[in-house]
From TrEMBL, chain A:
Compartmental location: Cell envelope
Keyword terms, alphabetized: Signal, Transport
Organism: Dictyoglomus thermophilum (strain ATCC 35947 / DSM 3960 / H-6-12)
One example GO MF annotation: peptide transmembrane transporter activity
Entry-linked SUPFAM superfamilies: Periplasmic binding protein-like II (SSF53850)
Gene3D superfamilies (alphabetical): Dipeptide-binding Protein, Domain 1 (3.90.76.10), Dipeptide-binding Protein, Domain 3 (3.10.105.10), Periplasmic binding protein-like II (3.40.190.10)
Protein name (Swiss-Prot/TrEMBL): Oligopeptide ABC transporter, periplasmic oligopeptide-binding protein
Lineage of producing organism: Bacteria, Pseudomonadati, Dictyoglomota, Dictyoglomia, Dictyoglomales
UniProtKB/TrEMBL annotation, chain B:
Subcellular location: Cell membrane
Lineage, broadest ranks: Bacteria, Pseudomonadati, Dictyoglomota, Dictyoglomia, Dictyoglomales
Coiled coil: none
Protein name (record): Oligopeptide ABC transporter, permease protein
Species of the source: Dictyoglomus thermophilum (strain ATCC 35947 / DSM 3960 / H-6-12)
One GO cellular component term noted in the UniProt record for this chain: plasma membrane
Residue ranges crossing the lipid bilayer per the database entry: 12-32, 115-136, 148-175, 187-206, 242-263, 285-313
UniProt superkingdom: Bacteria
Domain (ABC transmembrane type-1) ranges: 109-306
CDD domains xref list: TM_PBP2
Family (UniProt): Belongs to the binding-protein-dependent transport system permease family.
């Protein structure tokens, strides 16, 4: 009896398979694409950004759909989310989920999957979670959970029922939908993860909820994805995707081994555009989420305080010539943080190329024809930088300003010269700056130009003080003492004087949103007073020292803030105010006003845009829906959900 | 029994040398400007850390240090590393937090070893006869042509030779796939590309050392005893002239074992080179130390192997 049943089932299965083959009567549709070498498929690591959750193997509440006119070429669309409600203070977001979404093994995708996954990412089990790369950092109690002080169950996320998810934030966020598109915001499959926490993500084991399932992966070579039969939702018609790492893109494309290939240099670009066949398959787009240029070094030379000098240098670069002669037409001249033809860029005023005006400014700055100006240093890394050579040459030719190029080792360059708040070793001069957006979110619309009000736009003496205070704050972590009242005396005195100034700042600062943040409970002095009380009640010496150290850090933290706030230029303060206004409204609204802040940051000429790279590639004419990845790992292709191969 | 004792003694020396190498590596990293043992590289990639409060940053750094065992003093880190390394456990790397380095190495080493051994075999099979021919036809056009070719082989970067081959054989003639590492067809170009350099070196060494040997007294004696050209060269000259060649092959092979990164990238060969190359520039310290460990270990073992082969080639060599 039983065997008969089995036979019938088998018969039905086989006929269904045969029939489907007959009905389709078509070859498997296979697409091969170039890809970044990927260290693994664990979505919450920054290193996995590009195998993105957004549409390929995992998906979250929201995701990206192609939209050539929007920032980054993508628009945010609901994927698993159906609708949302948000509280008036933008701190509680409630999402209704679609009920038809499934994991690749057939399990339904529910709000509980999200709740469990987010709590898992936030837990100390993942000590090295790059929290800055995802939305969890804004969840209620996230930092306490991550540090192990609070149970992961206290994280601000909860499945109200199978298809309703509530997210509670510690501070208002208006761009939650944008943040929910990133890899760190996708759920993973609880049962598989718990069964093998080390290896659940390996192809063959992995259970996904996106349109494609990874079936094989050779690091350094390729990854194969096949269509997820359980996937519900819009998608293209490709059955199998082979992602290839490395190799000679254009030659692989010509040999018929790739359906698209990125153009990596001027030689390839000229070759492709002069070839009768390839030139028809050539595409290009602007990497508008970046800007490339230079920034002043983060050292402490007072020469940097000379605004006319900074402006003169920014105006004396022939960006058109750079793009034509040095970059071979693979870039656009850029004199503002966002290009024209873009909702933000259209409202920004660029830096003109005007040698006469620059000369005049330089003379007004006190260095007529570059006379009397010390030799500045342009730091670079790697094997020479033709763009920097061009800029330096322009300054010499147009203004008579001498700049020498100094090459340093790359790790040191990025970590100690380009990105830290300050680099005390840096001489007066410049480093290369190319600032991307990591993903769509309001803060990233400033493309790191907000480093200008944070670290640049106040007198060097105050910047130096800022740096010293930062060192002092770190030193408090290791200070011995705090066992007697006498140790507290200087702290208590400082608290009172700082408090007076703080009150003045709070009562005079015109931007209410900024004041709100400064007065948000617990304020610095409330935390300090609480630590003092805790200290009085403390039983052990270790506790006493610890409370005293934390209190000391609070005091220095307030000193850092006041040094910064009181010494920054009014322009920088205004830039910060505009930043507050931007991040406190929904994304689409923020886009409309963000240029006010950007303009103020740009007009300080500390971080100067010079050019914008183009992404160029060739692509199989039968292939549609290929999405360019324009964020910080780019250029490349991603979000293969939309791929479609015409017959 | 002398040989076994010798090998054991040498292995002990290797063990001690590796410990010294690792300690030096750690101290150098610690002395290097910038910070190896720190979250700075994530800051560099983030550029956003500025938006975190110092306390939040502390949480991140603490978690990061915990994962990579950086929360103990340097001497303890070195001790922990060595303890695990001799059991081939290296922990995760910064650039790949998903899996331990030994898993990555285990997956990639066979590929690199296959490529290295095939390329070396090709280099030997072609290089030695070339050298012999050049030596026997000394100062004729044959000699000049072979030596010119081998000079070109050592001057032109292997990468360029690879690219030229791809353009000819894959793009124009469509005989071979551009890249990959599964079928014998895919292996042809990478193996030739890797072999060119060592081939040139082996040919030159064979030539000069054969010339050296041919001028020795015992060769004259062999001819005097009525030996034919062929017998004299094969039996007497070649065997002795291969000694210096073996000396070259050992270290060359050791370096090939740690991967040839350009060629791996070019031909999409999933070997060790790709893994190790960025370690220093990315300041991926676990990977950097481990690549040093693997490279020194393979060079030392290769040298040991060369010394053992010596004994078979030259009975006069005694192990003490």
């Amino acid at each position: 009896m039983r065997s008969k049943k089995g036979l019938i089932i088998l018969f039905v299965l086989v006929s269904v398979l045969l029939l489907s083959g007959v009905i389709n009567g078509q070859k498997e549709k296979v697409v091969s694409l170039p890809f970044w070498d990927t260290p693994g498929l664990v979505p919450y690591y920054w290193q996995a950004q590009h195998i993105l959750a957004q549409g390929t193997i995992f998906e979250g509440l929201y995701g990206y759909a192609p939209d050539p006119k929007s920032l980054g070429g993508v628009k945010v669309v609901p994927v698993i989310a159906q609708s949302y409600k948000v509280s008036k203070d933008y701190k509680v977001w409630t999402f209704k989920l679609r009920k038809d979404k499934k994991w690749s093994n057939g399990d339904p995708v529910t709000a509980k999957d999200f709740e469990w996954s987010f709590k898992y990412y936030a837990s100390p089990k993942i000590p090295d979670l790059p929290a800055w790369a995802g939305p969890l950092q804004f969840f209620e109690n996230f930092w306490a959970v991550k540090s192990g002080a609070v149970d992961p169950d206290k994280l601000g996320v909860k499945a109200l029922d199978d298809y309703t998810l509530e997210i509670r934030l510690s501070t208002p966020r208006y761009d939650m939908k944008e943040w929910l598109c990133v890899a760190q915001a996708v759920p993973i499959h609880r049962k598989t993860v718990e069964a093998d926490p080390q290896n659940w993500w390996r192809p063959g084991k992995i259970v996904v909820n996106g349109p494609y399932i990874p079936v094989s992966w050779t690091p350094g070579k390729d990854m194969v994805l096949v269509k997820n039969p359980n996937y519900v939702g819009e998608r293209g018609n490709v059955d199998r995707i082979v992602l290839k790492f490395g190799g000679l893109g254009i030659q692989q494309y010509q040999a018929g081994e790739l359906d698209a290939a990125l153009i990596n240099n001027v030689a390839e670009y000229r070759y492709v555009t002069s070839d009768p066949k390839l030139s028809k398959e050539f595409h290009e787009d602007v990497m508008d989420c970046f800007w490339n240029g230079y920034q002043w070094s983060r050292g402490f030379d007072p020469i940097m305080d000379n605004e006319k000098l900074r402006k003169a240098l920014a105006m004396a670069i022939d960006r058109e010539k750079l793009c034509k002669d040095v970059l071979g037409g693979r870039a656009l001249p850029l004199n503002k943080y966002w290009p024209d033809g873009n909702p933000i860029g259209d409202k920004l005023k660029g830096i003109p190329f005007d040698v006469n005006q620059a000369k005049k400014l330089l003379a007004e700055a006190g260095y007529p024809n570059g006379k009397g100006l010390k030799t500045l240093v342009f730091y670079i890394t790697g094997g020479g930088d033709p763009v920097v050579e061009f800029i330096v040459d322009q300054w010499k030719k147009n203004l008579g300003v001498n700049v020498i190029i100094e090459n340093i080792e790359s790790g040191l360059y990025w970590n100690s010269y380009v990105w830290p708040s300050f680099s005390p070793d840096a001489k007066a001069g410049f480093t290369v700056m190319g600032a991307p957006m990591n993903n769509l979110e309001i803060g990233a619309l400033f493309k790191n130009s907000d480093h200008t009000p944070w670290f640049f736009d106040f007198p060097t003496s105050a910047r130096k003080r800022y740096y010293e205070l930062q060192q002092e704050q770190d030193a408090w972590l290791r200070k011995d003492g705090g066992l007697t009242e006498a140790d507290w005396k200087p702290l208590l005195e400082k608290r009172n004087t700082l408090y007076e100034t703080y009150k003045k700042i709070v009562s005079t600062e015109p931007e209410k949103l900024w004041v709100a943040e400064l007065t948000k409970s617990p304020t610095w002095y409330e935390r300090f007073d609480e630590l003092y009380e805790k200290w009085k009640a403390a039983k052990t010496n270790a506790d006493k020292t610890n409370y005293w150290r934390l209190a000391g850090r609070e005091i220095v933290g307030q000193e850092i803030f006041q040094n910064w706030y009181l010494n920054m230029t009014e322009r920088a303060r205004n830039a910060i105010r505009w930043r507050y206004r931007a991040v406190n409204r929904p994304f689409s609204e923020a886009v409309k006003i963000v240029h006010y802040g950007l303009q103020l940051m740009q007009d300080a000429y500390y971080m100067v845009p010079v050019y914008l790279a183009k992404a160029q590639w060739v692509q199989n004419p039968k292939l549609e829906g290929l999405m360019l990845y324009k964020f910080s790992w780019g250029p490349g292709f991603f979000n293969f959900k939309w791929l479609n191969l015409k017959d | 029994m002398g040989l076994l004792k010798y090998i054991l003694r040498r292995l002990f020396t290797i063990f001690v040398s590796i410990i010294v190498v690792i300690i030096i590596t750690y101290v150098l990293m610690w002395l290097a400007p910038g910070d190896f043992f720190n979250i700075a590289q994530f800051q560099a990639s983030a550029g956003k850390i500025a938006t975190l409060t110092p306390e939040q940053l502390q949480v991140l750094i603490k978690g990061f240090e915990e994962k990579y065992g950086l929360n103990v003093p340097l001497w303890k880190q070195i001790w922990n590393y060595l303890k695990d390394a001799f059991r081939f456990k290296f922990g995760p790397s910064f650039s790949n937090p998903n899996e331990p380095i030994e898993v990555q190495i285990a997956r990639r080493f066979p590929v690199t070893a296959t490529l290295a051994i095939l390329a070396m075999a090709l280099a030997v099979v072609v290089g030695i006869p070339l050298g012999v021919i050049a030596a026997l036809k000394r100062n004729t056009w044959v000699d000049y042509v072979t030596m010119f070719i081998s000079m070109i082989g050592s001057i032109i970067p292997a990468y360029l030779i690879g690219v030229i081959m791809v353009i000819i054989f894959s793009v124009y003639l469509r005989w071979l796939p551009t890249s990959g590492w599964e079928t014998p067809k895919q292996m042809i170009m990478p193996v030739i590309t890797v072999a060119v350099g060592p081939m040139a070196i082996i040919a030159r060494f064979t030539r000069s050392s054969l010339l050296d040997v041919l001028s020795q007294d015992y060769i004259r004696t062999a001819y005097a005893k009525g030996g034919t050209d062929r017998a004299v060269i094969m039996r007497h000259a070649l065997r002795n002239s291969l000694l210096p060649v073996v000396t070259v092959i050992g270290p060359q092979l050791a370096f090939l074992f740690t991967g040839t990164v350009w060629i791996e990238n070019l031909f999409r060969v999933p070997g060790l080179g790709q893994l190790f190359v960025n370690a220093a520039s990315m300041r991926d310290y676990p990977l950097l130390v481990t690549s040093t460990f693997i490279l020194s270990l393979s060079v030392m073992l290769m040298n040991l192997l060369v010394d053992i082969i010596y004994a078979f080639l030259d009975p006069r060599i005694k192990y003490q």
